[in-house]
# Entry
Amino acid sequence: MLRTLSIRDFVIVDLIELDFAAGFSVLTGETGAGKSILIDALALALGGRGDASVVRDGAAKADISADFATHAEADAWLAVNEFSNEEGGVLLRRVIDNAGRSKAFINGTAATATQLRELGELLVDIHGQHAHQSLLKGDAQRQLLDTQAGLQDDVKAVGIAYKNWRALARQREEFEANAKSVLQERERLEWQVGELDKLAVKEGEWAEISIEHSRLAHAASLIEGAQEALEALSESDNRPMLSQLTTLNLKLGKLVDIDSGLQPVLDLLEPARIQLQEAVYALNDYLGRVELDPRRLQVVEQRLSDIHSTARKFHVAPEQLPQEFESLSAQLRQLADASDLDALRAHEEKLKEAYLKLAQKLSAARAKAARALGDAVTGAMQELSMAGGRFQVALNPAAPAAYGLEQVEFLVAGHAGTVPRALAKVASGGELARIALAISVIASSATATPTLIFDEVDSGIGGGVAEVVGRLLKKLGQQRQVLCVTHLPQVASQANWHLQVSKFNAGGKTVSRIDALDAKARVEEIARMLGGIEITATTRKHARELLAS
# Structure
């Protein structure tokens, strides 16, 4: 339930702070006073579209905050999206600056406009003044029936099943139409995969054999160089390095006994002798492993040549051949699966059966919901001065589609003895407005949304019918919080709470304000709505009678 609404610098509002209560509230005012500003501001706080044009002239930004008491479904959404607070309830805030930049907050935490809309749909249901126009469209009629019956998940499942079925059907049709080109493509892939499979290049093989080839190709130079190094270190006839260093260390060791100042020199030379000895061991080990192998070199060179030529043929780097093999193999498997016409047809038939099963289940649910909605709206029509009138929801068979197996069509008979016909063909403006209102009230009763807003949905009706509309909204207000923007005194007089919109000039600028009316002020406002500019004792009396009734 909406508890408070704060509007700052929005259109022609400088600052308005309103408290709301349960029950039926109306918002009235003279034409042009801006009765819908409150609804527009609330819609913005609920994630609606907004731009710089909503910022009051001369202001830096528009700022709207709406505080709601929550219910179980909204609390669950807040918890999942990590917006809950210890106090309970939820505060939605939307700020739009004069450059058109928008910020959104939920319980003080930054949020997106999409998140505001998701949460807002759980808190408020707004019925616009032009809602009756959408009732003339087949898609809107179907969506209204599905929403009223709670069939959204079923419709979504049917849509997914239809998409899957038709995607495979198109694949099968394309194959049948392009069988020759598909066969040629398959043969090309089979040849390519065969070539790569025969070569069987392993991951990392190109780098490994490149290193081996370099070693084999330079084996003679490697052996010669290693032997020269070994001879210089330990096997030379002319006193090798290791022998000289060993002799030098022994001589310095004796001299250290005479002068310890030579000890640092000895400490530096001894590790060098050890390192030279380790180098001699390593060179001996290396020469024991390295050998000339012309036959192996020939094998490696042939492998390098095969891999390189194949890589050029496939226009990839040699090291990428394993990945190319996997990619082409996957394409071949996919094409093989897709070109199995019998398998495609069998799979397509299974998907079609799955779709039809879900669609038929949806059709049965729609038929039940159609009867219930038809009976409910027909009952409401009797109260709305359409005695004998009937409302029906026809489910006309249609070709399979994403929304199911039928087109939904609203039919109406304005009075007894006439055959129901399409709503667009038989309903006058006044009748259409009454029927739209009846549907709105009935559909709202079927939802869990705690706050319902009707923005001049009573347009096009008057007199006794308007009084009935007021009673319908007041009855609905016993179950939900209802807010209605209206120009009808018969509707306004039924409300539990009355808000009046007015505008005045402040500093050369037009400013709007909203006031909660007490009993005396309500009489004046209802009298104004009844009698226009000049309010007489008679209109005040009539206003008191309306309020008393």
